[in-house]
Amino acid sequence: MEDIDELIRRLYEQPPDGFVAGRAAAVAEAKQTGDKDLAKRLAALRKPTVAAWLVNLLALRRPELIADLVELAEALRQAQRGLQGEQLRELSTQRRQVVSALVAAAQKLAIEDDPALRRVKLPMAEVEATLTAAMAEPEIAEQVRSGRLVKAATYAGFGEVPRPRLRLVTTLGNEPEKNEPGKNEKKEERERAAKRRELQRDLSVAQRARDRTQSVLEKAETAERDAGHSIDELEERIAELERQRGDAQAELSRRKLARRSAERDASAARRQVGDVEAAIEDLDAEEPG
After folding, report:
1. What is the pLDDT of residue 58?
2. What is the rounded distance in angstroms from the CA atom of residue 214 to the CA atom of residue 220?
3. pLDDT digits over 178-195, tens only?
4. Residues 107, 128: contact at Cβ < 8 Å?
5. Rg (Cα) of the chain, in Å, rounded?
6. Which DSSP string corresponds to 10-77?
7. 73-90 burial, b if ≥16 CB within 10 A, otherwise e?
């Protein structure tokens, strides 16, 4: 059996509609060789979406472009940490240009593989979103570089945004009253305390909302994974049924050939019987009365 990394690469490099059949064949071959661990590892591979396949094509066939993307992302993060405005604007422009070029390259690779895709609307927006997310999140970037992405990624913001410093306005007028410093200080303290209580309440509300939405997100992700596994299982069954159908058709063809051969043999035997019977009749007719 070929090298496992090369086999997995080949699975994720081919269009998604052939993934399940290819995986099933690889699993069957691993089982035939007695490598149960390999068969289990292969069976666990998830089918990529079309958008993920396009990104995988880019990572597997043009890894240098992904390397450029990651390098630019690191430069952007450093510029953001240093708040280098001019450099940040320049790098942001480069980011848009690089992402756009990579999206075009992924589309070109797909069409080179299958010219019929030129007439198909490919999910290039999802490809762009994934590459943008890879620039913002090192973890996503590593998934992209692996060439084994199974679904597109998204990112709401970009990069490390510095947290602004909040300053509380603690006086109602333009300047504190100079003749009552103690009174003003107490007033400011009360305002700070009230503002702190208000912010604490807001924080509690935000934390509860975060926990609720996180729970909903986790359930949705679990449901999505389960649905994906169900589809994979159905596609595996379909692939197996297609294989059995092919075997049955081949067997039917063999049976037809055997039946036709038997018909020819039976016809020849009947002719031979007829010939022998005719010869016997002729012989009987020639006997003297």
Report:
1. 94
2. 10
3. 455 567 778 878 888 888
4. no
5. 36
6. HHHHS-GGGHHHHHHHHHHHHHHTT-HHHHHHHHTPPPPPHHHHHHHHHHHH-HHHHHHHHHHHHHHH
7. bebbbebbeeeeeeebee
